[in-house]
Amino acid sequence: MMKLHFISGLPRAGSTLLAALLRQNPHFHAGMTGPLSTLFVALQYQMSTANEFAMFLDETRKKAILKGVFENYYTPQRDKVVFDTSRQWCAKMPALAGLFPDAKVVACVRQVAWIVDSIERLIQRNAFDMSKIFNNDAGGTVYSRAEGVSVGGGMVGFAINALKEAYFGEHAQNLMLLRYETLTTNPAEAMSAVYDFIGEKPFAHDFDNVEFDAEEYDARLGTPGLHRVGRKVQAAPRETILPPDLFRRYENDDFWNDPALNTRGVRIV
After folding, report:
1. What was the pLDDT predicted at 236?
2. Least confident of 81-85, 203-207, 212-216, 243-247
3. Which residue in 39, 217, 234, 249 has its CB near the most CB atoms, within 10 A?
4. What's the domain range around 120?
5. For residue 234, what pLDDT is reported?
6. DSSP string, 206-246
7. For 214, phi and psi rounded to 5 degrees?
8. Is the pLDDT higher at 131 or at 171?
């Protein structure tokens, strides 16, 4: 019988690395962001009053349909512990709790300034590729790109808002925050915490031989390297390429670092 958990949180914060590590365990299945969250949201819309046939769908049927999407998609992995990845899941905590009461959500977080720096670094590294992150726009500056990802519907802004919804919401007991800094500097501690959180037996991971790449997918996005994971888990200190004023703009966004705000007692590693 499949056990289901979720990986969510902020972009460029270690979700692909976490999935790559989890895949080392033969009893686990994990990957990069997949299509299920998009299907989930689309089905919710089609089963809403926006569709004239919604009158035929009571809550029991809606739940069965949504749950069936996961069960059918992961049929090949039905005997494994499955981790589905999407930034959307933090905004769907009530629905997930209703469908999968035992499921946990591991949300990857990172200093927001360094997330924006990481995105900009990818854009500048691929100077001759126009990224779909910015609708293949060849214009703009580091400031307009930072603003674009930071607005409420942007790649970073949406993820932060969804994370806050989960962090301060009534289903926060199903949420754990995993800092990128912990995952890259002390991966053994990070993985031990994940296993403890989901209630699974520990596994001896190889932190010197971790690789994952989605070359074709990233090429289609015009952003090569977006999901590339290096062989060895390690922190890579560097100077930011963001202008100082832009970097400072995000210094108050890392709300999880303030213990006074953790009123729900969310586990933060």
Report:
1. 82
2. 212-216
3. 249
4. 3-268
5. 85
6. -TTS--B--HHHHHHTT-TTTT-B-SS---------S-HHH
7. -130, 65
8. 171
67-106 pLDDT, tens digit each: 999 999 999 998 999 999 999 999 999 999 999 999 999 9
Residue 105 to residue 35: CA distance in whole angstroms = 17
Its sign, for the CA torsion 6, 89, 176, 205, is positive
Handedness of CA 191, 163, 213, 126 (dihedral sign): negative
Gap between the Cα atoms of 16 and 5, Å rounded:
15
In the DSSP assignment, the letter for residue 177 is E
Phi and psi at residue 154, to the nearest 5°: -80, 170
pLDDT in tens, 57-67: 899 999 999 99
Per the CB < 8 A criterion, the answer to whether 177 and 256 are in contact is yes
Q: What is the identity of the amino acid at 45?
A: Y
Residue 224 sits in a domain whose CATH number is 3.40.50.300
Residues 6 or more apart whose Cβ sits within 8 Å of residue 52: none
Q: How far apart are CA 84 and CA 69, in angstroms?
A: 12
Q: How many domains does the chain have?
A: 1
Q: Write out 59-106 in H/E/C secondary structure.
A: HHHHHHHHHHHHHHHCHHHCCCEEEEECHHHHHHHHHHHHHCCCCCEE
105 beta partners: 6, 175
Give pLDDT, residue 33: 83
